[in-house]
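Hi support team,

I'm opening this ticket because the web form for multi-chain structure prediction keeps timing out on my end. I have pasted the exact lines I submitted so you can reproduce it. The total is 779 residues across two entries, so I didn't expect it to be a heavy job. Is there a limit I'm missing, or should I split the entries? Thanks in advance, R.K.
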Amino acid sequence: MALKLIRKFVASSLLFVTAASASAETFVFTAIPDEDETRLVERFRGVADYLSEQLDVDVRYIPVKSYAAAVSAFRNNQVQLAWFGGLSGVQARRLVPGSEAIAQGVEDEAFQTYFIANTSTGIDPAEDLASLEDQLRGKTFTFGSKGSTSGRLMPEFHIRETFEEAPEDFFARVGFSGNHTRTLRLVEAGTYEVGALNFQVWEKELENGNIDTNAVQVIWETPAYPDYQWTIRGDVNERFGDGFKERVKEALLALDDQELLESFPRSGFIPASNEDYEPIRKTAEEIGILD
Amino acid sequence: MLSYPTVRASLIFVAVAVVGLLFADIAITASNPWRDLGNFFLGVVTPNFFSSEGLLTALLRTVAFAFVGVALGSFFGFLLALVYRLLPVRIFCAFIRAIHELFWALIFLQFFGFHPLTGVLAIAIPYSGIFAKVYSEILEEADPEPRRLLPPGTGMIAAFLYARIPDVWDQMRTYTAYRLECGLRSSAILGFVGLPTLGFYLEASFSQGLYSDAGAMLILFYVLIATIPLWVRPKLLPIYILAAPFFLGEGLPIVWGNVERFFTEDIIPAPLRSGEGMAGMVPWLSDLMVNEAMPGIWNTVLLTQIALVATGILALLAFPLISNHFGGPVRRTSGHVFLVIARSTPEYILAYILLQLWGPSMLPAVVALALHNGGIIGHLIGRQTNTLRLRPDAITGFNRYTWELVPRVYRSFLAFLFYRWEIIMRETAILGILGIYTLGFYVDSAIQNIRFDRAMVLILITALLNIGVDALGRYIRRKLALQTMPTC
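Hello R.K., no limit was hit. The queue was backed up. Here is the completed structure from your submission:
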């Protein structure tokens, strides 16, 4: 029995060692799981293939189950590049000194959150949130993921600012659906009466005819804020060679495969910097998500 | 009847649960829950086994993680069992088993990341604690007689190997095999936090409403568990154990600096880290206690008590399904299938499914906990009734149930129920990750906000709560003189 176990330990430690050396020079990236998983895997495998071709190294995408898992993997140097949301990017860059936002989608300069409601609530779309106070109070409401910018941070900020109450006090029930697609489905099905989601997910699903517009509609649009971006670790040059960071950046900015861009959906990538996300940091500190 | 302590104890627990119901958030919020449930069952009967390329790999990984985790757990559990007399060892074991596998996984994910070690340790650590306890109980009950017959001067190790082990070997083997089944369940749910086991794909298909894919995964999982006696053979076991480490998948390499950082920075309370010292600790701790720990504890206890009573009721209703004293072989076979499904499906997966279908409230959690735990207890006491011999002219039907069988099995029923009390609470806390406001919800929130210091305090509180309930459960079982065997 003991001998067996010792053999097993040796075998498993050997396995760990080989696993470590085999993937040492692979450039690994991840992305926040903000949408349906099959869609993410399809999209980012495309990106991995593209980057691998452009950079001449093995590139691997790993799917994760939560926003925090994406941030942790980046912080732990198990991934070197990530497609973060505004908030997760700020969290990640605070935790990894030297890391940089290198590119964002064209649409991310002025991103928006849509508040949506099941039509059975009878809530009419409005220009400003304050005028919806009576109709929204006491409804059930769902955010997206706890760590989402467009699905949690910005909607919570506007709810607190406009109604001067915490969401859980203002609404009868507050939930976290997990991602934007699920928020859409839950409000469409009436499981929650109201929800908040990433406007790009809404527009794309609408365009693809995946929304029952008799069941759910947009009732309010937030002002614009900066959102998603590619963030890279500061130490990639030491590992993958001089100028690697610059090459990743150029590759991302040069990405013009329409089908791939369409899957994000973004019309293209433009340069970004850490400073672009200062408003997000301040908002997160204001509502107490960041220390 | 009130003069029976077992009846009084039962009524007190029922009363607590009824009062709890007044405070609990029980609702079906989905606008069309039955249609969704219908779609789900439609998916289960039209399974799609070829949906995901990763399905078979996931199944293999689920088995591999279970084998490695349980093997390590039983090895270290055995070593700990030898010194279980020592109070510090007992406290240590109580502590590591009070923390759920998923919490362990969430902790290890922070510094080992997606390395196989995360999943292996998440199973091995709490299982060591459980094995230590159960093995030590088994060893203690060994017949002392053979030992006395050994010639004086026999070495301790020889005496142990020749006079003690042979007597308890069968029992230990049975229990370890049983734990392997639990290990498969634990391994499957680790996928929900991102490890490459079945839960990973199940979560993905479910959240996208791909019920046929999810149905196929559940069916494969049931088949895997139901066929354990066929493929887990003593002779094959060494091969499985040797091979398992090679099927854990590569994961991502460990960066050891992260481990040090986690223990020396991440989990240090924020005020201490930022140099505010003890003065900053008071507001930090009171904020944590008032806004997170207290509501979490309240909801966890509330849900646990309701789920415990619901489990009891379900178990009492379910045991006749497999009892020889009622009905014919057809109904008994379907009863077996129902109970196997109920007890093989981890609470976490059941709760996840029901939450998707019925919307968020405590109800899906109560039903999930009652189905799983009620299925286990119903199965055990149902089997027990099959050993009872009634008089040939004994009453039949409902009267047989109420006047002959229930009174005879009630004590062991209560014993199982109180034994599972702590297990139900451990699961209740973890269901918070799915969005029910128990302690797990706040742990998950803290982790999502990258505040591991808060997460660790909350996990610690959860562990203490479990230890408390475990002690209370044992006290009640002793008071009522109830005896039981361990379940998981």
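A quick check on our side: Residues 189 and 199 of chain B are 5 Å apart (CA to CA). Let us know if the file doesn't open in your viewer.
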